[in-house]
Write a structure and sequence with these properties.
The complex is a heterodimer of chains A (about 160) and B (about 230). With about 160 residues, chain A is mainly alpha-helical. Chain A is built from four helices and one strand, in the order H-H-H-H-E. In chain A, helix 1 runs antiparallel to helix 2, helix 2 packs across helix 3 and helix 3 crosses helix 4. Chain B contains eight helices and six strands; from the N terminus they run H-E-H-E-H-E-H-E-H-E-H-H-E-H. The chains are: A mainly alpha (about 160), B alpha/beta (about 230).
Chain lengths: ~160, ~230
């Protein structure tokens, strides 16, 4: 009876793994970023199938209940996984912002050089999720000894 | 937007200096870009909405790259009248010239500081900036700003993304830039709504306070800035 209950848990994990594999096959997630999660889930399956290992190691480490040991490990690993995600997300965000700015600046230069006036939605299929903000930065070019690099407009 | 660009161009003539109006269109769905371009501004349209920090930094990047001697940031909703520009520019003639000039509202804050919550919030913000970051600012959220070359060099590299104004002051201070304030008359916004709504105030306060503290810690620990 005991064994059977653990196996249901293992089955749940396998279903999630199956879902993840399906996402991988459809290239919705990359193996590089899901590998750690995949291995973690498989590890959980192993502990569910062989609960003896968990309780033995838990006892050795001074946990009164095997479940406490299991949960502690689970939470620890999940926190680390999430931390990794947060780091990756932050890096991605700063890259995306830099690239978007670059694209906007280059498009402006191209438009100016080719004499095309900007119009609504010319740059994008506009972000519908957030309220549009228009900020205005006003570059003041005084009489300066700093030479403008090539491509700069003097008008 | 049209009148604003026209005002800036008029001010350019009056002051006798060359001003290039640049409009950063952060994914607006109305005819902002068209109108601004028709009025004679250079328009940078961001392909995806970046929010205020990313938009402002775009303008600063442009100014830095093209070697402008300084840049002035003005809100697109018309609350920063261009005819006050001279007051900001005047400080640049002083020696040593400040790296960052902030146009602050006059003490009369009736139209702007409406709710009690907002008053407490801005009081807290000023306290944190003064005592943690060492910036005695009277109006840290003001977006009417003049950036000198050193400020452009700093913010071109790193600029906060959301609710950037108070945090950028702390960054500038940590980088050893000099900040000056000059009182200017601001108008009630001609169009648009504030990006700070009351339900976000808690997040805003927490984020800015922490960010300011982080700036201070960074400046103590190692020379700023370090490229990300």
């Amino acid at each position: 009876m005991e064994v059977e209950r653990y196996w249901i848990f293992a089955l749940c994990c396998l279903v999630i793994v199956g879902f993840l594999v399906r996402l991988l096959l459809r290239e919705r997630v990359s193996l590089q970023h899901s590998l750690a999660f995949l291995l973690f889930m498989l590890g959980v399956v192993v502990t569910a199938v062989f609960p003896v290992v968990t309780s033995r190691v838990g006892q050795l480490m001074g946990f009164a209940l095997p479940s406490n040991f299991f949960f502690a490990i689970l939470i620890g690993v999940l926190v680390l996984l999430h931390l990794g995600t947060v780091i990756a997300l932050s890096r991605l965000e700063s890259r995306t912002i830099a690239l978007t700015q670059e694209l906007g600046l280059v498009q402006e230069q191209v438009a100016r050089l080719s004499g095309v006036a900007p119009h609504r939605g010319s740059a994008s299929e506009s972000a519908a999720h957030s309220a549009p903000t228009t900020e205005m930065a006003n570059a003041v070019s005084g009489r300066t000894d700093k030479p403008a690099p090539s491509g700069a407009s003097s008008t | 937007m049209g009148p604003l660009v026209a005002d800036i161009r008029a001010e350019s003539q009056k002051l006798g200096i060359e001003i290039v109006p640049v409009v950063i269109d952060d994914g607006s769905t109305d005819r902002t870009a068209e109108v601004a371009a028709a009025a004679g501004a250079r328009v940078v349209q961001l392909p995806k909405n970046l929010g205020i920090g990313g938009a402002v930094q775009t303008g600063l990047r442009l100014a830095w790259r093209e070697g402008f001697s300084c840049a002035v940031q003005v809100d697109g909703d018309g609350q920063h009248p261009p005819h006050e520009l001279g007051k900001l520019l005047a400080l640049l003639k002083e020696t040593p010239a400040p790296d960052l000039v902030v146009g602050t509202r006059y003490e009369d804050r009736q139209g702007f500081q409406s709710t009690l919550l907002r008053r407490i919030g801005s009081g807290w913000l000023r306290w944190v900036l003064r005592h943690v970051a060492g910036v005695p600012s009277t109006d840290p959220t003001s977006g009417y700003r003049l950036y000198g070359p050193r400020a452009l060099a700093l913010f071109e590299r790193t600029y906060p993304y959301d609710y950037p104004e108070p945090e950028s002051l702390a960054m500038a201070r940590a980088a050893g830039l000099t900040i000056r304030e000059v009182p200017v008359i601001m108008r009630a916004r001609m169009a648009g709504t504030s990006s700070i709504t009351s339900w976000r105030t808690a997040y805003y306060m927490l984020k800015v306070s922490l960010a300011v503290t982080l700036c201070y810690v960074r400046s103590v620990r190692r020379p700023w800035p370090k490229a990300m």
